[in-house]
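Predict the 3D structure for this chain.
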Amino acid sequence: MDALLSALADPARWRLVSLLAERPRPVGVLAELAEARQPQTTKHLQTLERAGVVTSQRNGQRRIYALRPGALRELVAELSRLADTADRAGGPLATYERYGRSVEVELLAARGAGWADGRSFRFSRSLTGSPELVWRHLTEVDLLTGWWTPDDLRVSELVYEARPGGRLVLEYRDADDAHGSDLVAGRAEGTFVDVRPGESLGYRLSPLLPDGGFAFTAHVDSRLRPTETGTDLDVHYRITDSTVEAADIVAGIEIGFGQSLDKLVANVAADPHGATAINSTDTGTPATTSIGITGTTGTTDRPDPRSTK
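Done. Predicted structure below.
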C-alpha cells in the first residue's frame, strides 16, 4: 500500500493512470498525450508497474501499458475501511467533533471572571456491585487508575488521600504516550471534604491552566444508594471561581466525566466478587503502584470540621 500511494502521489504519474483508465496505450502515445518526454514517461510507467498499478507487454517494437483495476480497488477498499473506522457511530471522532462544538459555545460565554460560577452537572449510574465494592473502586488507587480518565487518556499521577483534609492530585496523559513525549493532557489539585465509606464522597478539585493557575474549583459530591440489583451512584459537579481561560476545560466536563463513569460501571461489572488491589482501609498505609501513584482510603465516618473550608 505504501508503494502504491507513493506511485500515485506524483501528478505526472496520476495523469498517466488517468490516460490508461481509458484504454491501454503505448509509451510514445502516452508521452505525447501527457506532454512529457518519452524517457521521463518510461521511468514513470516503470514506477507504476513496480507498484502494481499498471502492467505492460511487447507488441512488435512497441511496449503497451495497461491499467490494473484491482490495485485501485484495493486502495479504495483500504481508504473506505479507514474512513469507516474513523466515522463509526459514537466513536472518538464523533466525541472530538462534539467537544469542538462545546468549546465554541463556552468561548462565547466566557466574558469575564466568574462566568461559569454556579454551573452544575449531574450524573447518575446504576452499578451491579454492592456499595462496598463500588466504594473500593471509588477510593482505591489501583482501581481508580482503571477508570478515572476520559477515553483515550491514562492516569500518569495520582495522589489520593481519602480522608477529610486529605490531598488529591490527578494528572493524565494520552493513552499512547507511554514515555511522556507529549504535553500533559490535564492536571488538577484539590482536597477531600466528605468521606463516609459506602455512603458519600466529596472533594474540591481545581484543574490547572498552562501557567499553573487554577481554571476553576469543582465541588464534586457523590452519593451511593444500595438497590436490589447493586448500587446507584449520583454525582453532583458544581463550578465556582471560574476564569475566562477555563472555557475549553468546562466544555469537556460533561463528555469526559461521563466517559469516566461509564468505565467505572464496566469495571465494577467485570469485578463482581471484589478486586485484588491492596485495600489500605485497615492499615492506613498508602498503596503504591509502579507508576508512582499513591493514596490512602479513609475510615472517618464524618468530616473533620478543621479541614473543611
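DSSP finds ten helices and twelve strands in the chain.
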